[in-house]
Amino acid sequence: MAEETLNTAAAEAEPVTAAEVAVAPEAEKVEEAPAVVCEKDGSPEEEKVSESASFKEESNVAGELPESQKKALDELKQLVQEALKKHEFSASPATAVEIPAKEEKAPATEEKSPETEEKAPATEEKSPATEEKAPATDEKPPATEEKAPATEEKAQAVVEEEGKSCDGKDESSPPPVPEKEVTEAVGTLETEQPPEEVSIWGIPLLADERSNVVLLKFLRARDFKVKDAFTMLKNVVAWRKHFDIESLLSEDLGTEQQTVVYMHGTDKEGHPVCYNAYGEYQNKHLYNQTFSTEQNRTQFLRWRIQFLEKSIRNLDFSPNGVSTIVQVIDFKNSPGPFQWELRQATNQALRLFQDNYPEFVAKQVFVNVPFLYLSFYKLISPFLTQRTKSKFVFAGPSKTAETLFKYIAPELVPVQYGGLSLEGEQEFTTSDSVTEEIIKPATKHTIEIPAPESCTLVWEARAVGNELTYGAEFVPESVYSYTVIVQKSRKLSVTTDEPVISGQFKCDEPGKVVLTFDNQTSKKKMVLYRSKTKVTGSIKC
């Protein structure tokens, strides 16, 4: 499952390169695989992921593009404009065949004219026999000769009735229209038709500047090869019509998969973050309900496409807006490689994402990655392009939270990944900022929070990795008052304690709340905390 997860996620980010890697990467596809750069972190069992060289996301503003890319964008827009005028996006194969089918009737009718023309010589053959009777009657030969033209006139009439012209001219029938004039007339009718209207992901093509963002996705997916990008665009539009994406958006496909794939918050640059927790498939009931039959796998695929479509519709396709997503893929407890049903469904999704959803991922962050996978991708990273490596980040279990905090604010990271974001109604919101503190090994660290008078001070903290001793007390400003123990010192355990420490204290006098963290381990630890005050009296804090 681990390799499939990597490759499926890669399909949404790099539809031309990384997405082409199969479930088990083949030797000839090594240079297309996702990238990882690892550093040793003291022990051989832990890997620390260092971000590859900085790579800024490409601009979608037409004026900021290099000249070669501007030229490619203009050429692609011209091809799209011509295709819309000719209604090429909506032309079906049946319609395309009908036009030459009508033109083939003319040669078929012409074949009849030789048969008709043969009748005239056959009639003329009688004239020698009639001429033999000439000595008996001198006036008959002229009468017989008049019959041949009459027979030819009948043949000509038969041909004219079938729509064919003969050598003879009939002044009563209108002259045939030249083929050139017919072609020009048809072309005039076509130009009079209004251009076709085509939308993709809710964005009408060539309607406004948002269309440039869509076209740039196809160009980047095909390395700015205009014809290849145009072909891909036409194929995507055809697939969306065949799959009936617009109807799919309104279908009720259930909510069972929302624990596996879900959107939660944004990163520090405003990209929506999509979490993929494939460890949820350890639940046998959910696994069988999703993958046990072909119908279930098809339902899962439709749900996955529907989820992606709805996520894309929430993006801002303006040139300065956010039009990509950050993917977080969790390998914790992910199913093993022998679940062939999951492999099959993943490969189907991989191909669809590869072909129909280009350049929609800003970054892929793989967390809780097993050591063997880290080692494998470390070996192949020298064969990868810088652009590919910049989009992929890998982190082992001990570095998951630290890695996520590089890209996502801690208050927006779910608690299961080391952050402070909890579901449901909470005391704190995402607008309440979080402070990070680093506690050195074998060190006691204190955090002081001012506590005004006549207020209730509320706080919450998170020791990333736990294994610390925690306590809290209120220290008044007055030397004549006593220190109050708010929470007794206790050792935080990963298995027995809630991930987030919360507390509150009603302040009858001014002072401060002191949080104490004692790190007796040989590794540095990170502590996250935030606080706020509530008015409990007439005095405003």
Compute the average pLDDT: 76
Q: Describe the oligomeric state of these chains in a short phrase.
A: single chain
Order of neighbouring strands in the sheet with most strands = 5-6-7-8-9
How many helical elements?
Answer: 17
Query: Can you summarize the main beta sheet?
Result: 5 strands, mixed
Shape: elongated
Q: Per CATH, what is the topology of the largest domain? A: Phosphatidylinositol Transfer Protein Sec14p
Return residue spans where pLDDT drops below 50 for at least 5 consecutive residues.
1-54, 92-152, 162-173
**Helix proportion:** 25-40%
Question: What's the total count of β strands?
Answer: 17
Q: Report strand %.
A: 15-25%
Characterise the protein shown here.
α2 crosses α9. A hairpin with a 7-residue loop joins β13 (469-476) and β14. The relative contact order is 0.13. The longest helix is centred in the N-terminal third of the chain and has 22 residues, at 140-161. The protein folds into three domains: 2-57 and 258-417, CRAL-TRIO lipid binding domain (Phosphatidylinositol Transfer Protein Sec14p, 3-Layer(aba) Sandwich); 99-134 and 142-191, no CATH class; 435-535, GOLD domain (Jelly Rolls), CATH 2.60.120. The chain is 38% helix and 20% strand. It has helices spanning 2-13, 67-85, 93-103, 105-110, 112-124, 126-132, 140-161, 179-192, 210-221, 226-243, 245-248, 284-291, 294-313, 340-356, 371-380, 386-390, 400-407; strands spanning 38-41, 43-49, 199-200, 203-204, 261-266, 272-277, 325-330, 361-367, 392-394, 435-439, 443-451, 455-464, 469-476, 484-491, 501-507, 511-519, 525-535. The strands form five sheets. A five-stranded mixed β-sheet has the order 5-6-7-8-9, with helices on both faces. It is elongated and about 115 Å long. The chain is an alpha+beta fold and 541 residues long.
